[in-house]
């Protein structure tokens, strides 16, 4: 049944008419009010600040939050649709703490033709204390209106994107890293390298046909003065030369340009001249998901199509090592499947159980592992609780190990396009970290991918190098 809004015209209103509204102040109300008004007084968001500055043990609501409830009554109830606020005079007698329940009462005190109406305003809390009193004056509607209540969009608070900014900021304390940029022959790939160099993250070595690179730079007004260029005839040679620079130590990281990923990775994976180590090469998405309270790593969503149990051992260890570099001392690894119990007909549940036992036996180190876990149980503490899953990982995962590339790729893209997540990407397990950029990546995501590679390259110089190889 559709809820209707019906006003009361000036002629219908009588002195003494009153309406009431009861509303409990939630933390979300305070945050939304602060966002809407720009009032970020810390006493409204922190009990410690409220104690320090206002001598109250709880965070305080904005005083005008209570006043704004008057507007809700006037616009919805009395007089209702068509009301125009003329003025108000309010006195605040008691603070409103988060969690207080307020009862708002408006009483018609005066009418003045042709349409002015005055109201006495009173707000009390659940303890009967007077919060505010005052007067409001409006132009009341003169035309009768009855219409369906407008369906407003649902508002849900989410944290700001901040993961990438923090990663990039950390690079301010380390020296730029030499990066072989493989075949940067279009705007996106060349601009990404130039932006990273300008940000002080990398010292790019541009590997590709020099005439083409300079033509792209001129067309899109990109400053490549002073950047080293290694001239090649075509993309295949660009891949060969880029890998050779990394193998020789002239570059500490590799970045994909405008060539196809398979072409570059073919050279990376060559046994004789490539960048292989004893570790399986794998890809890790570094996700900044505004609806999730921590950095989320997803692996593998770009390299290993149908990884074996042995492959997954390396894939998960690569992600754990990266998590350490990003500052998580003991990451929680959720090994994903469709269900949270071991089921012989679903191979990923068998792999999950085996990986957990490998971690128990020290074959995987540096993290807490649990699985199999369905996606909801991995990222939602509430879902894990409902299903009675007792686990230090469930609901709080830092790393999601997916069953195969298809699942991982779809998961990462769903988070990007349905949850407004940002995604950076890096390939690990080779002699150097490898940045795989995409045309769809934002400028911030490209910078973040470079920053992750820089931090990982610095970690490899010491203790991290032995761990990675």
By CATH, the topology of the largest domain is Isopropylmalate Dehydrogenase
Helix content: 25-40%
* The top level CATH class name of the largest domain: Alpha Beta
Question: Cα-atom Rg, whole angstroms?
Answer: 30 Å
Number of helices: 15
User: What number of structural domains do the residues give?
Assistant: 3
Index terms:
single chain, 469 residues, alpha/beta, Thiol Ester Dehydrase, Chain A, Rossmann fold, Isopropylmalate Dehydrogenase, 3 domains, six-stranded mixed β-sheet, five-stranded antiparallel β-sheet, 15 helices
Q: How is this structure best described in words?
A:
The protein folds into three domains: 143 residues, Hotdog Thioesterase (Thiol Ester Dehydrase, Chain A, Roll); 118 residues, Rossmann fold (3-Layer(aba) Sandwich), CATH 3.40.50.10950; 150 residues, Isopropylmalate Dehydrogenase (3-Layer(aba) Sandwich). Helix content is 35%, strand content 23%. Strands 15-14-16-13-12-17 form a six-stranded mixed beta sheet, with helices on both faces. The C terminus is likely disordered.
């Amino acid at each position: 049944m559709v809820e209707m809004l019906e006003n009361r015209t000036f002629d219908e209103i009588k002195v003494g008419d009153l309406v009431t509204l009861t509303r409990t102040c939630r933390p979300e109300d305070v945050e939304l009010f602060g966002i809407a008004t720009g009032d970020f007084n810390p006493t409204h968001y922190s009990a410690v600040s409220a104690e320090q500055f206002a001598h109250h043990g709880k965070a305080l609501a904005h005083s005008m939050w209570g006043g704004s409830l008057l507007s809700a009554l006037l616009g919805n109830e009395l007089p209702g649709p068509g009301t125009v606020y003329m003025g108000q005079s309010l006195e605040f007698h008691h603070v409103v703490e988060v969690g207080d329940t307020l009862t708002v009462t408006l009483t018609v005190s005066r009418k003045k033709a042709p349409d002015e109406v005055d109201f006495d305003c009173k707000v009390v809390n659940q303890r009967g204390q007077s919060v505010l009193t005052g007067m409001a004056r409006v132009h009341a509607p003169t035309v009768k209106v009855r219409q369906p209540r407008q369906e407003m969009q649902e508002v849900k608070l989410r944290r700001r994107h901040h993961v990438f900014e923090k990663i990039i900021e950390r690079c301010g304390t380390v020296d730029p890293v030499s990066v072989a940029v493989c075949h940067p022959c279009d705007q996106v790939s060349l601009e990404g390298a130039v932006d990273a160099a300008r940000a002080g993250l990398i010292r790019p070595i541009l590997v590709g046909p020099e005439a083409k690179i300079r033509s792209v730079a001129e067309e899109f007004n990109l400053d490549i003065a002073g950047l080293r260029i290694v001239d090649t005839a075509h993309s295949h040679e660009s891949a060969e030369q880029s890998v050779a620079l990394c193998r020789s130590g002239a570059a500490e990281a590799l970045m994909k340009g405008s060539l196809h990923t398979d072409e570059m990775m073919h050279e990376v994976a060559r046994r004789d001249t490539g960048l292989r180590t004893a570790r399986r090469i794998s890809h890790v998405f570094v996700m900044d998901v505004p609806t999730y309270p921590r950095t989320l790593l997803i692996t593998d969503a770009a390299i290993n199509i149908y990884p074996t149990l042995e492959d997954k051992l390396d894939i998960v260890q690569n992600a754990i090592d990266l998590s350490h570099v990003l500052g998580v001392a003991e990451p929680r690894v959720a090994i994903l499947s469709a269900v949270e119990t071991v089921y012989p007909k679903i191979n990923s549940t068998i792999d999950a159980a085996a990986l957990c036992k490998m971690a128990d036996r020290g074959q995987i180190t540096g993290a807490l592992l649990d699985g199999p876990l369905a996606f909801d149980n991995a990222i939602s503490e509430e879902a894990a609780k409902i299903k009675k899953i007792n686990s230090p990982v469930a609901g709080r995962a830092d790393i999601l190990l997916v069953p195969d590339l298809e699942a991982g790729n779809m998961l990462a893209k769903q988070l990007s396009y349905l949850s407004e997540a940002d995604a950076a990407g890096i390939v690990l397990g080779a002699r150097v970290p490898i940045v795989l950029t995409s045309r769809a990546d934002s400028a911030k995501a490209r910078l973040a991918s470079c920053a992750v590679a820089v931090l990982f390259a610095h970690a490899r110089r010491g203790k991290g190098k032995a761990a990675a190889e």
